[in-house]
Design goal:
Elements lengths: L11 H12 L5 H15 L6 E3 L4 H11 L3 H10 L6 E3 L3
Antiparallel strand pairs: 1-2
Helix pairs in contact: 3-4
């Protein structure tokens, strides 16, 4: 099967951390990305749960203090997803 190139831009620290992680079991970045792509195709989707990170009460309080917003307004923003969202892999 013919091969093709895929170019991906990532943060330098992320790349170095990922390379160290993949090197431990003897993989390289190419092998790890290929494994992910094959797994995604066989699962017919992303092979792990992706969900929005929901801030806890302490984070909401810190954001409210930092942004000087009333708590209710910030909570509504968090619930509606207007606070800068991050997506994470579920640790379940």
């Amino acid at each position: 099967m013919p091969a093709t190139n895929v170019n991906v831009r990532v943060d330098t620290d992320l790349k170095q951390s990922a390379e160290a992680l993949f090197n431990d079991p003897g993989l390289n970045m190419f092998s790890a990305i290929t494994m992910f792509l094959k797994s995604a195709v066989s699962h017919d989707g992303i092979p792990f749960e992706v969900k929005r990170l929901s801030p806890n009460a302490e984070t909401i309080a810190a954001l409210a203090s930092e942004q000087k917003l009333p708590d209710k307004q910030l909570i509504r923003s968090c619930i509606s997803g207007r606070v800068q969202g991050k997506y994470i892999r579920s640790k379940d």
